[in-house]
Design a protein that fits this description.
The complex is a heterodimer. In chain A, 0% of the residues lie in helices and 53% in strands. By secondary structure, chain A is mostly beta strands. In chain A, strands 2, 4, 5, 6, 9, 10 and 11 form a seven-stranded mixed beta sheet that branches. A four-stranded antiparallel beta sheet of chain A has the order 1-3-8-7, with no helix packed on it. By secondary structure, chain B is mostly beta strands. Chain B is built from no helices and nine strands. Chain B has strands spanning 9-12, 18-23, 34-39, 46-49, 63-68, 71-76, 85-93, 98-101, 105-109. In chain B, strands 1, 3, 4, 7, 8 and 9 form a six-stranded mixed beta sheet that branches. Chain B has a three-stranded antiparallel beta sheet with strand order 2-6-5, with no helix packed on it. Chain B starts with 8 loop residues before the first strand and ends with a strand. Classes of the chains: A mainly beta, B mainly beta. The interface between A and B is medium-sized, with 19 and 23 residues.
């Protein structure tokens, strides 16, 4: 069974870059056929899709965040990563990594990690 | 403000049936598959329904999904206290070129 685990700092200062990594186990990130996704959830709010990356490195970002987001993948480590620049308090959220078959809904999710933006 | 509209909360008694609505537009629900997620307190969302009405392996048939036009509905029968959770709908939005979600509905089993 595929498992995903987020890791990274839980506290980021305003204007800095939020960096998170998702480690995938129980399945190959480079097997193809899947998008590797980042989604966030502001406290007490709904879900917001950030973007996805394919094992080849192809990316697609939410237009509302596109100017600040970069996704990358390291197939040798079975990891993919999120960089979000110029963060503000509005970026405080639980960040989830997830997997979706191409053209389908996200099915496997990580447990999520809370990132707080504060000085 | 979420692209998809869900009621903030619903409630029903154990053993009863409840439905949760998800309203969108032709650019999202109207022309794309809808999925539903269950989020128990303090946990990650779990896929309940995909492609409007399909259940992943292990999801009991007490959970069902349907779609009509630009709206979708999640139904839960035989309510249990363990069903108390937030439920989210989601789909692709062709105009926004992004996956979109509803604001979530909190289910209380009285």
């Amino acid at each position: 069974q595929v498992q995903l685990q987020e890791s990274g700092p839980g506290l980021v200062k305003p204007s800095q870059t939020l960096s998170l990594t998702c480690t995938v186990s129980g399945g190959s990130i480079s097997s193809g056929g899947y998008y590797w996704i980042w989604i966030r959830q502001h406290p007490g709010k709904g879900l917001e899709w950030i973007g996805y990356i394919y094992y080849s490195g192809s990316t697609y970002y939410n237009p509302s965040l596109k100017s600040r987001v970069t996704l990358s993948v390291d197939t040798s480590k079975s990891q993919f990563s999120l960089n979000l620049t110029s963060v503000t308090a509005a970026d405080t959220a639980v960040y989830y990594c997830a997997r979706a078959s191409v053209g389908a809904a996200p099915d496997y999710w990580g447990q999520g990690t809370l990132v707080t933006v504060s000085s | 403000q979420s692209v998809l509209t869900q009621p903030p909360s619903v409630s029903a008694a154990p053993g009863q049936k409840v439905t949760i609505s998800c309203s969108g537009s032709s650019s999202n629900i109207g022309n794309n598959y809808v999925s539903w997620y269950q989020q128990l307190p303090g946990t990650a969302p779990k896929l309940l329904i995909y492609d409007n009405n399909k259940r992943p392996s292990g999801i009991p048939d007490r959970f069902s999904g349907s779609k009509s036009g630009t709206s979708a509905t999640l139904g839960i029968t035989g309510l249990q206290t363990g069903d108390e959770a937030d439920y989210h709908c989601g789909t692709w939005d062709s105009s926004l070129s992004a996956w979109v979600f509803g604001g979530g509905t909190k289910l209380t089993v009285l």
